Amino acid sequence: METYLGDNPENVVVVHCLTGKGRTLTVCACLLAWLGWVESASEGLHLCCDRRGGQVEALTTPSQRRYVQYFSRLLDCEPLKREALLLRSVHLEELPLEGASSAVQVDVFNCGTLVFATRVALAGARSVDIVCGRVIRGNIVVRVREVCADGSRRSVCRCMVHTGYVSGTVRLQKEQLDGACNDPRCSDAMCLELRVEETAEEYKPDAAGNRLEVYESLLLDTSSALWRELLYRKERRNAKKGNTVFDIDSEEEKPLPVKDPSRDYLLELALLEDELANKPATPQPAAELFSASEEQSLDTLMQSLDMSDEEGEEAKEPLEPLDLDQLAATMESSENEEGHDFNSEFGV
């Protein structure tokens, strides 16, 4: 986006997601901080939410706000921890279960890959400690669902964390859990704990098995061009600190950071991706990931990360492809016929 904006002063970047809220605002906030137009990503998030017309807590999920904080720490050049973590167990308290015969299903994803999944019958209990014993590293998603007596599943909560910013056990209360934070069925005593301990194993991205980990390798290498760029932007931001107020309504051209070949992180990434393109992917066999009993509890839906949207609802059927030309024509026609000011409505 930065490159596109810098190519031509007339270029405009449009950022959107399904609802135009959580993911959109998260990306916009981080972009403003990356460009140095705000002092931190958290400040950028409040600015974007104010422009969107709502409170941060109402427009974003706890995990999105957590990753905005991670991004601020990254921009402050705080190195990520390189060590992997052993996830000993997932502990859940005060689950909002509806049936006495309910079971709870817990899925753990590491960099988008399912690494642990199990179902546990609770027999009326509302708290449970699920032993995992998995080594985790990088981006982690934990999804908790209730399995009802009729076999249907109901979302309970989700959370996303990055092991590079984790120190000791991660304890998340109701207000820190996606889905649960706004669910009246969840009591204030509800919590999720990721009970982890450090291992001697250093984090080594397995790009051959999971291509998403290529990005992690650049984040962890403090000698990379990406880190040189981070240091440059931190110095640039500190030099301007307190002297710049970003006016989102101003038509004045905003300055972009000066490019330098020694900090060309995009070229560095392109070369790394090109190198990986010539290597065959070697995904880990399922037999090495799950015990026989765990494999029997999995079904096809659990093989994909069917994450819920920002509203906390379960994923729906795939949407039809959006015809942007048809949408634009419809909007133009409606505006002409009804005099509706779409520019004013959407703030463009």
Automatic annotation (TrEMBL):
<dbReference type="GO" id="GO:0005829">
    <property type="term" value="C:cytosol"/>
</dbReference>
<protein>
    <submittedName>
        <fullName>Phosphatidylinositol-3,4,5-trisphosphate 3-phosphatase</fullName>
    </submittedName>
</protein>
<dbReference type="GO" id="GO:0016314">
    <property type="term" value="F:phosphatidylinositol-3,4,5-trisphosphate 3-phosphatase activity"/>
</dbReference>
<dbReference type="InterPro" id="IPR029021">
    <property type="entry name" value="Prot-tyrosine_phosphatase-like"/>
</dbReference>
<feature type="compositionally biased region" description="Polar residues">
    <location>
        <begin position="294"/>
        <end position="306"/>
    </location>
</feature>
<dbReference type="InterPro" id="IPR057023">
    <property type="entry name" value="PTP-SAK"/>
</dbReference>
<dbReference type="InterPro" id="IPR035892">
    <property type="entry name" value="C2_domain_sf"/>
</dbReference>
<dbReference type="Pfam" id="PF22784">
    <property type="entry name" value="PTP-SAK"/>
</dbReference>
<feature type="domain" description="C2 tensin-type">
    <location>
        <begin position="77"/>
        <end position="199"/>
    </location>
</feature>
<dbReference type="InterPro" id="IPR051281">
    <property type="entry name" value="Dual-spec_lipid-protein_phosph"/>
</dbReference>
<keyword id="KW-0378">Hydrolase</keyword>
<feature type="domain" description="Tyrosine specific protein phosphatases">
    <location>
        <begin position="1"/>
        <end position="58"/>
    </location>
</feature>
<feature type="compositionally biased region" description="Basic and acidic residues">
    <location>
        <begin position="337"/>
        <end position="348"/>
    </location>
</feature>
<dbReference type="InterPro" id="IPR014020">
    <property type="entry name" value="Tensin_C2-dom"/>
</dbReference>
<feature type="region of interest" description="Disordered">
    <location>
        <begin position="294"/>
        <end position="348"/>
    </location>
</feature>
<dbReference type="InterPro" id="IPR000387">
    <property type="entry name" value="Tyr_Pase_dom"/>
</dbReference>
